[in-house]
Design brief:
Its EC number is 2.4.2.22. The longest helix is centred in the N-terminal third of the chain and has 15 residues. The protein is 30% helix and 33% strand. Helix 2 crosses helix 3. Strand 5 and strand 6 form a beta hairpin. The radius of gyration is 16 Å and the shape is globular. It is of the alpha/beta class. The strands form three sheets. Strands 4-3-7-8-9-10 form a six-stranded mixed beta sheet, with helices on both faces. A two-stranded antiparallel sheet has the order 1-2. The protein has a two-stranded antiparallel ribbon with strand order 5-6. The chain is built from five helices and ten strands. It has a single domain, classed as Rossmann fold (3-Layer(aba) Sandwich).
Length: 193
């Protein structure tokens, strides 16, 4: 997605440890006009599929998932990273290791909001090693729901997540795939799609 790649080049900051900081428009401050274009693109990519739910993980995926859900006219469910008093009843649980936070979370989704009748599209802001996606896929399987595919805004193509998901037969669409980032020069190289 050319618009997204241009925005990453303009405002993205490459940090030590293969971290791409895009908090000025994607995952802290959110550019809703850009999100609308992202939503349109995911609708184009998955528009021929029947989708009943969008599933994401808190927190950075929620804003994007909400805009995407508007294009599909379906609800968003997000996996929480901790059980709280307002989640009652049975839940699906999966372990997720966060690349950014270097922490393992038990992510949970209430069984009230995901079941065997659902056709699920996963949405997230980043894909690096694929741990968040694998955790969400496990939750879809636990619910006996049908996984339609996964939509990622930015994929780090030089990390293993995307390749592993594609090899597993997941319909994965990434709007920008980065093949290389240089923290010294700030140069970002995108894969031709």
């Amino acid at each position: 997605m050319q618009l997204l790649e241009e925005r990453i080049q303009k405002d993205g900051i490459v940090k030590e440890g293969n971290v791409l900081k895009v908090d000025s428009f994607l995952n802290h401050q959110m550019d809703v006009k850009l999100f609308k274009e992202i939503g349109k693109e995911f609708k184009r990519l998955f528009g021929n599929e029947e989708i009943t739910k969008i599933l994401t993980i808190e927190a950075s995926g929620i804003g994007i998932a909400c805009i995407v859900a508007e294009f599909f006219d379906v609800p968003v469910v997000f996996a929480k990273k901790s059980k709280s008093k307002n989640i009652d009843g049975a839940v699906y649980t999966s372990k997720v290791v966060s690349f950014t936070h270097n922490k393992t979370y038990d992510v949970i989704v209430s069984k009230k909001f995901l079941n065997e009748n659902d056709k699920v599209l996963l949405i997230d802001d980043f894909l690096a090693n694929g741990n968040a996606m694998k955790g969400l896929i496990e939750i879809v399987k636990l619910a006996n729901a049908k996984l339609i595919g996964a939509g990622i805004v930015i994929e780090k193509g030089f990390q293993k997540g995307g390749a592993e998901l594609r090899e597993a037969g997941i319909h994965l669409e990434s709007l920008a795939i980065i093949d290389d980032m240089d923290e010294t020069t700030g140069k970002i190289t995108f894969r031709k799609q």
